[in-house]
Amino acid sequence: MVVDGRRALSDVVSTQVDIHRRWGGVVPELASRNHVVQVLPVVHEALGRAGVTLKDIDLIAVTSGPGLIGALLVGVQVAKALSLATGIPFVGANHLEGHLLAIRLLEDAPEPPFLGLVVSGGHTSLYDVRAYGEYRRVGTTRDDAAGEAYDKVARLLGLPYPGGLPIDRLAQGGDPEAIRFPRALPQPGVLDYSFSGLKTAVAQHLRAKGVPEGQALADLCASFQEAVADSLSKKAVAAARALGHSRLVLCGGVAANSRLRTLVRERGEAQGLKVFLPPVRLCTDNGAMIAVAGYEAWRRGLRGDYTMAADPAWRL
Amino acid sequence: MAAVTSTSPEMTYRMGVRLGQLLQPGDFVGLVGELGAGKTHFVRGVAEGAGVPSDVVASPTYSIVTTYPGRIPLHHADLYRLEDHDELYATGFFDLLDGEGAVLVEWLDKVPSAAPREYLRITLSPVDEVTRELEVEPVGERAAALAAAWLAG
User: Fold this and answer.
1) Which of A10, A101, A114, A202 has the highest CB neighbour number within 10 Å of its CB?
2) Could you state, in order of their start, the residue ranges of all structural domains in chain A?
3) The pairing of beta strand B2-6 with beta strand B28-32
4) Environment class of A4 (CB within 10 Å of its CB; exposed 0-12, middle 13-18, buried 19+)
């Protein structure tokens, strides 16, 4: 429940992580079945916590892409049904625009233009945000997303899913210089990322030396984390500078990572950038950010109708 | 069955390019190989060979299937996170098999029943840090012809 695209009255997140932990990932079939069960209770909870009813709602925003088709379809059908039953209009919102605009829910939110780094399990991209609705992707991963590298390395190390938090925790007590893992595409001017080679380097290290324990495990986690945060922060700051931006926004689930936050802040500020790091609850997937993106989409004239389809590959 | 050796990631990539140039609608290529076996390099090569713009290729580990525009549509799937046939079925994956594109699947060993009756299976195994052995197993006439043309190139 968000007012005027800026103020969250409530934000209810039904996490499927417990179910997914067993599977080492977000398995689509499970995810969409679970969506069906949870979507209406979450809507009721969001209205209840905000102290409003459906009568008070002016617009329903729903994620219509990108993402897993089964999960998207559940949301889109519910939005259409709610709209049909109540007469409230609805609009499809882009998940990535939601991440980029989540920061608007804070008091001192930056207005565009800014450079946004969206980094999560499924995405790692740099966006040149000129204005609301004007997004240009200027760099992206050529293979794995950063969050995917975390999850795969966690699996190699026998750590739980999702891999971000356990690796981050272990890394706190480790030496980031212990192992020099490769940084992909280090050439200045190249704004794309690549994390598949890093994952391979970790796999090869483990094949040669075995899965470490204790301090050696902490060192490995810290070294891996350093390689990820080093690449992500360096290119984000370089992109902001190259495009003449004075503001840098970090968002997406991996933006919760402690080392990434530190490096983006340090390197950004060293280059004179104002760096915005949303609190963790706004970095991970949430409904409020979709309300913001939907509000902005509505303001630029987008409308949902009953023929609207979910687009699993919707490119911002 | 045949085996070929790649002595570098670049060579693995170029072998992918050659296979991608030969792909026709209806072809199904399944890749097998542990993390770090070179599947990513190979896949990027196949995509280039199939005329897919390089900036649209990414890992489908989370989306399970991504379809790229190219000389022919290329469906790139990743079964890494799946446990069984039912889960794959629920993604709509099998609707792709009669389509107009070629299908390239990573981690085929996770759900071997993803493959149709005729397909080309390629297993990548690390020999040392840069060297990879590619074991080529065609099943069916078209796959045999595809493999022969590819290995002759």
Assistant:
1) A101
2) 2-99+284-299, 110-277
3) unpaired
4) exposed
| Placement of tokens 């992707």 in the chain | A137
Across residues A31-60, what is the average pLDDT? 88
- Chain B residue with CA closest to A143: the answer is B58
Predicted confidence (pLDDT) per residue in A209-221, tens digit: 999 999 999 999 9
> Which pLDDT belongs to residue A30?
54
- B2-152: CATH class: alpha beta
Residue A133 C-beta-side C-alpha neighbours within 13 Å? 9
Angle, CA B29 vertex, CA B47 and CA A26 arms, to 5°? 80
* Fold annotation for A110-277: Nucleotidyltransferase; domain 5 (3.30.420)
Domain boundaries, chain B: 2-152
Q: Which residues of A touch B54 (CB under 8 A)?
A: 142
With tokens 């080529």, the residue in question is: B136
How many CB pairs below 8 Å do chains A and B form together?
80
Under an 8 A CB cutoff, do B62 and A32 touch?
A: no
What's the N-to-C CA distance of chain A in angstroms? 24
Taking CA A80 as the corner, what is the angle to CA A74 and CA A82, rounded to the nearest 5 degrees? Answer: 100
> Is residue B79's pLDDT more than 80?
yes
Q: How many C-alpha atoms does A55 have within 13 Å on its Cβ side?
A: 2
CATH 3.40.1580.10 matches A2-99+284-299: no
